[in-house]
Design brief:
The complex is a heterodimer of chains A (141) and B (291). Chain A has 141 residues and is of the alpha/beta class. Chain A is 35% helix and 15% strand. Chain B has one domain (5-290). The chains are: A alpha/beta (141), B mainly alpha (291). Chain A binds chain B through residues 3-8, 10-11, 13, 35, 38, 40-43, 45-49, 51-52, 54, 76, 78-80, and chain B through 28, 32, 35-41, 44, 46-51, 53-58, 190, 192, 195-196, 199-204, 207. The complex binds iron/sulfur cluster. Residues 21-22, 24-25, 59-60, 87-89, 94-95, 119-120 of chain A line the site of iron/sulfur cluster.
Chain lengths: 141, 291
């Protein structure tokens, strides 16, 4: 593994986008940053700027209003980038399944690499998902 | 004057990024410990750096790249000049122009976040520049020269005769190090102020260059602090590390202030301290000290 590839795994910066979730999963994502779970020890930063980020963490089913925003954020991220769907709604639509205004899962809009199920997804599950994403990241040349 | 200053300057250019990167890593670790977290390893900054180097190139405006290079090269020049014991005044001017490069870079893109960040960065420069320049003047009044080598030849540490100047410099350094309570243009530690303020539009290797510049800047600032106890230098180094720890402590216990607060504190307290110090030394105690 080259230096850059190793560094990539050690410093995934996250941009978190909530496209219409109930905020349950967002709270759990923020819980990952607290002293209890402290994801910064893995070099993970919630950087809040798509241009700096490596990992797009999305919660909520996309609806017709913010589908454009999600696409824009995805396109603004420089490669190599990964997308993580957190929560049942982001994976499949969850409780918003078949609502007239939602797209039903973010994989209808952007390519998703990791799905983290759960309503709400627990912080442990989210950290597991990030580890999976890092595994994928390490294979990118 | 031994004639080897330029060698020391070049060595500083090579080792400053290493030192700066580790210091920033220690910063993150200590900050995490103060917040009851474990925190990243202390070489985390280097991971970040190499990862950014490996990212795809995404450029908003070509012009902004030139300013990044200007920011880096001018800061490197300032580091070289400080370690080669050149003119303190010129070092501060070069540093000011390096800071201006960052601002011009932020103005050369269209992002409103970048623009607000740049406006605030101007406010920050407005706050700390007078302090640094007046500090150089105060040092001049003590040593009789603006040269850094003059500080080394001056007998007795500057801290004892210029304690208030030192306090003022600390205020300026908090701004220059982008620490709370004055981290208004773009905070470190991914606090997401204004998205990322002046750095919003930079990505990949150009962000890495900015990071590299921060490491140089950090070393430069701490080296300047160390000058306050130049003889023997190891006390100066300890002094600089102590100051760094103090900045981290303040960073963690302080909330961010508004720019108007920053301006009034740095001008009233900072410039006030320096002027009082100069007046005391020159007019009141001058005769006593010269005996
Ligand atoms: S998965 Fe459940 S908890 Fe999470 S955003 Fe959707 S509805 Fe809320």
């Amino acid at each position: 593994m080259g230096l850059v590839a190793k560094a990539r795994v050690k410093s995934p910066w996250i941009v978190h986008y909530c496209c219409g979730s109930c905020n349950g999963c967002d709270i759990e994502i923020l819980a990952c940053l607290t002293p209890m779970y402290d994801v910064e020890r893995f070099g993970i930063l919630n950087i809040g700027n798509p241009k700096h980020a490596d990992l797009l963490v999305v919660t909520g089913p996309v609806n017709r209003r913010n589908v454009k925003v999600l696409q824009t954020i995805y396109e603004q991220m420089p490669a190599p980038k990964l997308v993580m769907a957190v929560g049942a709604c982001a994976c499949t639509g969850g409780v918003f399944h078949n609502c007239y205004n939602t797209m039903g899962g973010i994989d209808k809009v952007v390519p998703v690499d990791v799905y983290v199920p759960g309503c709400a997804a627990r912080p442990e599950a989210i950290i597991d998902g990030v580890v999976l994403a890092l595994d994928k990241l390490s294979k990118i040349k | 004057m031994s004639g080897y200053e330029w060698l020391i300057g070049l060595a500083a250019l090579v080792f400053a990024p290493l030192l700066g990167g580790f210091l920033r890593g220690i910063d993150r670790k200590l900050t995490a410990r103060m917040q009851g977290r474990i925190g990243p390893p202390i070489w985390q900054q280097f991971y970040d750096f190499f990862k950014l180097i490996g990212k795809a190139r995404a450029v908003t405006t070509k012009g902004s790249l030139m300013w990044v290079w200007g920011y880096l090269l001018l800061t490197m020049l300032a580091v070289y000049m400080l370690f080669a014991q050149r003119d303190l005044l010129i070092i501060f001017f070069i540093l000011a122009f390096a800071g201006a490069c960052l601002i011009f870079g932020a103005f050369s893109v269209r992002s409103p976040y970048s623009h607000i960040g740049a406006h605030r960065e101007i406010m920050q420069m407005l706050s700390y520049e007078p302090i640094l320049l007046l500090a150089a003047v105060a040092i001049f009044l003590q040593t009789g020269t603006f040269k850094v080598s003059g500080i080394f030849e001056h007998d007795g540490p500057l801290l004892l005769t210029l304690p208030l100047v030192f306090v003022a410099v600390l205020i300026a350094l908090t701004i220059k190090l982008r620490k709370s309570p004055f981290d208004i243009s773009a905070s470190e530690h991914a606090h997401q102020e204004l998205v990322r303020g002046v750095y919003t539009e930079y990505s990949g290797r150009f962000l890495a260059l900015i990071e590299l510049t921060h490491w140089y800047e950090l070393v430069l600032i701490l080296a300047f602090v160390a000058l306050f106890w130049a003889q023997p230098l190891w006390i100066g180094v300890l002094l600089a590390l102590g100051v760094y720890f103090l900045e981290l402590l303040v960073d963690n216990i302080e909330a961010r202030l508004q720019w108007s607060w920053m301006l009034s504190i740095s001008w009233a307290a900072g410039i006030g301290f320096i002027l009082v110090n100069i007046i005391l030394i020159e007019l009141v105690f001058g005769n006593v000290l010269r005996l």
